[in-house]
Structures are given as structure tokens and as C-alpha cells.
Amino acid sequence: MTKLSKPTSNGATVTPTADPKSLAKCGIPAPAPNGSNNVKLKLASDVVSKLGALEKPLPAQAQAILYELDQLGGSATQSDLIDRLDSEASTLSTTQGAKRIVTFYRKGLLAKGLLVRG
Fold first, then answer.
1. 3-state SS assignment for residue 103
2. Which of 17, 25, 46, 105 is the most exposed place for a label (fewest CB within 10 A)?
């Protein structure tokens, strides 16, 4: 598998936390405690080609999820991924917690076929 590159801000979306006025309107629900922590997430085997075929580039936060999962060997439980995203060495740049970010982007990444449950 080809390694994923580090996430970059490509202007695909405006992160709600980038504009303090929009923070209250971000629409990201609070995650349920211990909801899906033991669910195993894996990168799709053809994730790099699927990323290249997307009509719109992924937001930097979604890219960070894929990148950090790749750094974990391509497969990890959701709680391990969240721990990695919360670490000092993480590429995730946000004022929100990693759990909230993963909860928000997981469904879309699964729907696009970039992540698979496993």
C-alpha cells in the first residue's frame, strides 16, 4: 500500500473553529460516551486511488484521520485512533477533541469507501 501524505489545508471546507463567530453553528453533535470505542477501523485497500478519484478534496481533519490510521499500520480500534489523534505528534489541528472529530467524519469516510469496519 502506498503511504498517505500528511494532511494539508486545501480550502475544501472552512473549519468551523477557524471562524470564532461560527463556532456555535458548527452542527457537530457531541459523541455518546464509550459508543464505538472498540469498533475496529481499517483503511480500504485502494484508499490512495479512491482519494484521487474524489470530486472534492477531503477536509484537513478527515485527511488527518486517514493519515494517523495509516501511521498505526492501517488498522486500529477507534479508541486507539482517538488516542493517536490526541497525542502531541498528531497531524490533527483543531480546538475540538479528537473523539468529536472522529465521530463526525467516520460515517462519511465509511460511505466513501475510504474506511472499512473490520
1. helix
2. 25
pTM for the model: 0.70
Residues in CB range of 42: below 8 A, 6 or more apart: 69, 74, 75, 115, 116, 117, 118
Predicted confidence at residue 75, as pLDDT, reads 94
| pLDDT score recorded for residue 8 | 74
3-state secondary structure 42-90: EECCCHHHHHHHCCCCCCHHHHHHHHHHHHCCCEEEHHHHHHHHHCCCC
Instruction: Check if the beta carbon of residue 59 is closer than 8 Å to that of residue 108.
Output: no
Note the pLDDT tens digit of each residue in 47-104: 999 998 988 999 999 999 999 999 999 999 999 999 999 998 899 888 888 999 999 9
Q: Say if residues 91 and 67 touch (Cβ distance below 8 Å).
A: yes
